[in-house]
Amino acid sequence: MRVLSGIQPTGNLHLGNYLGAIRNWVRMQDEVAAKGGQSLYFLADLHSLSDHMTREARRDALTDMAAALVACGIDSTKSVLFNQARVPAHAELCWLLNGTARMGWLNRMTQWKDKAGKNRDGASVALFDYPVLQAADVLLYQTTHVPVGDDQKQHLELARDIAVKFNADTGREVFTLPEPTIPPAAARIMSLRDGSAKMSKSDPSDMSRVNLTDDADTIAQKIRKAKTDPEPLPGDVAGLEGRPEAKNLITIMAALDDRSADAVLAEYGGANFGPFKAALAERLVVALSPIRERYLGLRRSPEIDAILIDGATRAGALAAPTLAAAYDALGLVSGR
Ligand code: TYM
What we know:
Elements: E1 2-7, H1 15-34, E2 38-43, H2 55-72, E3 79-83, H3 89-97, H4 103-107, H5 110-116, H6 125-139, E4 145-147, H7 153-170, E5 179-181, H8 216-225, H9 244-257, H10 261-268, H11 273-298, H12 302-329
Parallel strand pairs: 1-2, 2-3, 4-5
């Protein structure tokens, strides 16, 4: 069992990242180690090229996001934690896979379509090629499981398509086919301002998300102001149909408590949003404040750099055999 996942170090870690992905990374660490497997988690800093950032902002975002992952419970004695740019094999394999990936496949990616919008000619090549780099991230380590939120499913299907075609074209079994591991309950946490948009780092409104760095007052204010509708909460999940904002808040509560949405509605059904929102805010503060405290202690500490440097050395060693096999399968002689 080899588990790998990544996060873009741009902006804050938010509740969607946490419930959709990071909490599962932390939970899987022990399970994977017990099975004699290996977990790798990384900061996708090369992926951040598709967003404009200053040099300073990019550097700070990397170490801040790494500190946030450690604060959430990613333990460098159990998992390999590193940043992508420190392991050149990622960029190298991306280039090799560029020979396999098809323009038509990339043109169908919803993230590309959403982010490029109408101005495709003005979008960067990095944005278009983003899913090929993501395929390289995964395939480089013979990854078997990729814990991600629902929005990454299409990119992982593409990684599988690339692996299948590369293996078939070269007649060698160079790559393992990875499986996405998507949490059943919190795969898609939505914006607090609009139940039809996912909670996202790039939403211009900070009121749309709960950041893991928000203090108790900010969390309470964001939940109090979260968009809802005038009806009281329904008694069961069927009653959430057509009420995306209510559904999202119930999903968050259920995920935090590790119970079903029906169990949450059995408690709050029939009530107005007021008391439910107060309970949700309290529950969020209990879950997030220890993470925030740890984060503030770790932020900008040399310990974080040391973890990333050590992680990159270990990741580079794990990647080397697959990269060598990929070069060789293509008949290329690398200078490595
Ligand atoms: P990123 O940085 O957008 O998000 C990191 C993880 O958080 C999940 N996520 C969510 N889950 C539920 N609800 C939400 N609102 C929400 N928003 C984000 C994402 O699904 C993801 O699991 N392309 C990736 C980074 C990446 C990667 C990889 C992932 C690069 N290479 C290889 C896996 C394997 C990304 O931008 O994630």
